[in-house]
Amino acid sequence: MMKKYSKILAGLLLALTTLPGCFDEIQLDLPTSTDRKIVVEGYVNQSEEEMEVLITVGNSTSFDDEAGDVELLPLETAYLIYNEVPFPQYPLTNNTLNRLSITDFEQVAPSSGAPVVQLFVRLADGRIYQSARDTLPALPRIENIDVGTYTREIRNEQGILLERDFLEILLSTPLQRGDSEKALLRWEMTGVYRYVESPPPVSSTLDPQQTCYLPDDLSGDEILLFNGRETTETSLNRFPAIRNIPLNHFFASGYYITVLQQTLSPAAYQYWDQLRQNANPGGGLFDPTPGTVTGNIQNIENAEETVLGFFYATQTDTIRRLIRPGELGNPQSYCANPSNYDQERCSECTVLSNSTLTKPDYWIE
Description:
With 365 residues, the chain is mostly beta strands. The protein has helices at residues 2-18, 102-108, 266-279, 343-347, and strands at residues 38-46, 50-60, 70-72, 75-82, 85-86, 98-101, 116-123, 128-131, 134-135, 144-155, 161-174, 184-196, 211-216, 224-227, 235-246, 255-264, 297-299, 307-308, 311-314, 316-323.
């Protein structure tokens, strides 16, 4: 999170230095390496049988530190408070996915409605932090993933307008389950694309044509949200959840997309929406600059301390879809385009970062 703020401020400073005209020198009060705040963040992702709990507790890095977002701190203990009952007998490990049986919690603290969770953290130096209560919201299931293509003009490095093809991901999902309130949704999207080498000059079992599979983080740093309570509709039909995906060689031989749909409580939605607004400011010179996002973590012995981060409860639905080249007009592969041809990557695809010759288990033609 802190790294995102760093990039935003760097962009603002660049814009100010390239504006024409005369301006007074602007001094921004940026944190120094000694101006660091505690970060406590994480989530409970609940399924029918277990809870996945991930927490990160540490110090925020300074704005000029690109080594990472959080410097982890040693914990004395960390655990969940489930339906008002503390569970120190199931300690949580810092920055590691913890898997807990729901039965163990429900037998001691059964839910009369939706479960309510909190996080309790005691640092090795004795400081104590606790999150506000967050109620697990109901989860509507995604029904379908579609894709669409469109053309728009963009400027190249020389400032010339060119037409380029782009892809959009269209989701269809109900906005509520049963008689629950309409959902506040968050999506994450990733992909895996197939990359086929050029055939060798001479067919040989010693040098066969290989197929690699490479990951692609579609959503990246973009925060994808939808507030179901701001529409009269009860479902989304082919909603463009993400756009502006370049239609390139990634889609030439098959692309498997994975969409994760989460439901958020109103407080968690507000937190993510604040992050989104900070990451995507209006861009005007006099627009409000990104600021500290309000979290739900408090030092229970020092309420004046500023604590970064948020802890929330969610459920996640996962849906996958194979995007075939024919759906997108059969984009050209990298190695089939003479202007892109690179001998090494076209004859040995395993040199590509994060590539593998192993096809994902879920990849079904």
